[in-house]
Amino acid sequence: MSVADIKKNTDQRMQKSIETLKADLGKVRTGRAHTGILDHVMVDYYGSPTNITQVANVTLIDARTIGVQPWEKKMLSTIEKAIRDSDLGLNPSSQGDMIRVPTPPLTEERRKEMVKLVKTEGEGAKIAIRNIRRDANESLKKMLKEKECSEDDERRSQDDIQKLTDKFVAEVDKLLADKEKEVLTV
């Protein structure tokens, strides 16, 4: 493995940490409705637990309401029950062959809890990025010890990896600030 390979691998792993953080932040509920809220709801579809998106069309009706249109009419009550029984605190209601799921506005206390959750997710991402930096630096030291690179190359590469780390930590901070603003916006 060369110095360039270590840098490239480090960059890719840090980028994956950012992608994971984005996915995790996407699951944090804000005051607005979004179809991703129901992604983890499982419905009993003829005896087997099935993701709600595989038995119904999930859309946004307006900023605070999600519409769920089952593909089979007899699934209406099953889907409604699955949403009600989920730990999301949602109260769906049937209207003809469609289920309306209003998302309740978040209380100030709940918003503050969400901000804490967002900060925890961000701290986890920063720790992951720092661990990746540590692994890269250890690989460089090992290469130096085995005389596969010069001390200058090792020092320069460590500086490059530190710059990479700083760049990704700044990106995490920006993502957290954006999500915090989004959660606190009433």
From TrEMBL:
Residue ranges of domain Ribosome recycling factor in the record: 21-184
CDD domains for the chain: RRF (cd00520)
Localization per Swiss-Prot or TrEMBL: Cytoplasm
Keyword field: Cytoplasm, Protein biosynthesis
Chief location category: cytoplasm
Keyword Cytoplasm: yes
Keyword Protein biosynthesis: yes
Cross-referenced SUPFAM superfamilies: Ribosome recycling factor, RRF
Function as written in the Swiss-Prot or TrEMBL entry: Responsible for the release of ribosomes from messenger RNA at the termination of protein biosynthesis. May increase the efficiency of translation by recycling ribosomes from one round of translation to another.
Sequence similarity: Belongs to the RRF family.
Name under which the protein is recorded: Ribosome-recycling factor
